[in-house]
Amino acid sequence: MPKLRVHNVSVSLDGFAAGPAQDLKNPLGVGGEDLHTWMFRTRTGRAMFGQEGGDEGVDDDFVRAGDENIGATVMGRNMFGPVRGPWPDESWRGWWGDEPPYHHDVFVLSHHPRADLPMRGTTFHFVTDGIEAALERAFAAAGGRDVRLGGGVATIRQYLRAGLVDEMHVVVAPVLLGTGERLLGGDATAGYEVVEFVPTDRAAHYRFARSTGD
Amino acid sequence: MPKLRVHNVSVSLDGFAAGPAQDLKNPLGVGGEDLHTWMFRTRTGRAMFGQEGGDEGVDDDFVRAGDENIGATVMGRNMFGPVRGPWPDESWRGWWGDEPPYHHDVFVLSHHPRADLPMRGTTFHFVTDGIEAALERAFAAAGGRDVRLGGGVATIRQYLRAGLVDEMHVVVAPVLLGTGERLLGGDATAGYEVVEFVPTDRAAHYRFARSTGD
Questions:
Q1: A206 and B170: CB-CB below 8 Å?
Q2: Can you tell me the distance from the alpha carbon of A168 to that of B191, in angstroms, rounded to the nearest whole number?
Q3: Residues A54 and A46 sit within 8 Å (Cβ to Cβ)
Q4: How far apart are CA B12 and CA B108, in angstroms?
Q5: DSSP for A62-117, written as a single string
Q6: Which residue of A has its CA nearest to B199?
C-alpha cells in the first residue's frame, strides 16, 4: 500500500517548526533558519540549494530518504507562497524558480481555485475540496509510489489529526525559539508511536508511525 | 554566584513532561513512565529506587550531575504530594518514606501554610509567599552551593518565565504522549539558549541557559 510520508521536519527543543514573526525576509520566522543547520551541512541538503560539498553519513541519509520512492507531493498554500486570499493573478509561481525540485505532480491546498501551473518537470495543481481529496488525487498521480506531505505546520497537523499520515520523520535541533508555530502534541500526535530514534552529533532524528494498538 | 539549576526533566517528542490523566496510580499520567526509561537503565537512576545494576556512561553522568554541588531544593506542591487545598492534617509526609533522597532543606511552594516537617536528613519547609521568596530562602539554606528546582511542570514554567532559572537540562525521550503537561515554549523558554547537546542511543540530552544577548 502506498503511504503518506513526512520527512525532515525540524523542530526546536521547545517544539516549534518555525519561529515568530514570519515574513518574506524570514520565511521560517526569526531564528527559524537555525532549525536547519544540520541539513545545510549535509551533501544532499547543500545540493538542494545548488551548493557543493557537505557531509555524508546519517544526517545525509535521512535527507535523501525523503525523496525515495515518492511519486507526488501535497503541500499547504503557505508552503507554495506568501500570497493570501484569492489569487490576484498567475504571477506567483512558487519559491523555486523555473525548475522546482519536485519533478512530479504537486497538489497545493487552497481555498481559492487556480488553473494548473505546469513548470519544468513539475505541475502544481490547486485543490479546493479539502485534504482528503488532495491526498486521493496525489495517490492517483503517484502511480503506486508514496506521497510526500510537505508543510507548513498547519497542513501537517491537519493530516496528523485526521490519522492520514503513515510515517513521519521529525528532527529535534539543539535550538530554542521561545515561541512560534508548534508542530506536535495538542492531540495531533495521539495514536502515533515512535518507531525509530537515531541521534547524531548535530540533531536527534525520530520516526513515528500510527500505533498498531498492541 | 550560586545558581538555580534544573536537571533530568524528561519530555516526550511532542513536548510533554507528563501524560494525560494523572492520578495516584499514574503520578506521571498515562504513558508518562516511558519518559524515564533511559533513567531507569542507569546505575544512578536504579540506585534511587534501591535497585542494583544499571549502566554507567553518558546517561548516568547526567543523572549524577543533578546532585552535584546542590545545597537545597525548591519544588511545587504537586511534586511533594497529591493533597490539594488546605492541609487536612500532617499525615502526608511526601512520596519518599522516612529518609527522603535530598539530605538538605527542601522548600515546597504552597498556598496553604504548614509547619516545618523534619525527616531523616531532610527538612521540608512550606513557603506561602511566592517563588522568589522560596528561592531566596533556598539560597540562604544552601550556604553557597547551588539550588535545584524540582517539578512539577507548572513550577518549572513559573521560574523559567520569571527568568530565574540559570541552567536547565532536558531530555527528549523517543516517546509520543499525544497530550499532557507541556514543559517548554509558550514564552517560557524565550531568552534562553541551548549550550550543550549530547545524544545517546536512548535519549537526547540538551542543556540550556539564559542567553548572553550576543
A1: no
A2: 30
A3: yes
A4: 26
A5: HHHHTTTTEEEEEEEHHHH-S--SS--SS----SS-SS-S--SEEEEE-SS----E
A6: A199
Q: Inspect the interface and report whether the beta carbons of B194 and A174 lie closer than 8 Å.
A: yes
Q: pLDDT tens across A119-175, in order?
A: 999 999 999 999 999 999 999 999 999 999 998 899 999 999 999 999 999 999 999
Tell whether A161 is within 8 A of chain B (Cβ): no
Residue B43 burial class via C-beta count within 10 angstroms: exposed 0-12, middle 13-18, buried 19 and up:
middle
Cell for B9? 526533566
Residue with cell 507548513: A152
Measured between CA atoms, how close is A201 to chain B, in angstroms? 7
Cβ of B37 under 8 Å from any chain A Cβ?
Answer: no
On whether any CB of chain B is under 8 Å from the CB of A123, the answer is: no
B175 to chain A: closest CA residue: A194
Is B13–A179 a contact, with Cβ atoms under 8 angstroms apart? no
Measured in residues, chain A has a length of: 214
Each residue's pLDDT tens digit, B167-192: 999 999 999 999 998 999 988 999 99
Residue ranges of domains in chain B, CATH in brackets: 4-19+28-83+96-206 (3.40.430.10)
This prediction has a pTM of 0.91
Closest CA to B108 of B142, B150, B139: B150
The nearest CA of chain B is from the CA of A142 a distance in Å of 30
Cβ-defined contact of A199 to B194 (cutoff 8 Å):
no
Size of interface A-B (CB pairs under 8 A): 95
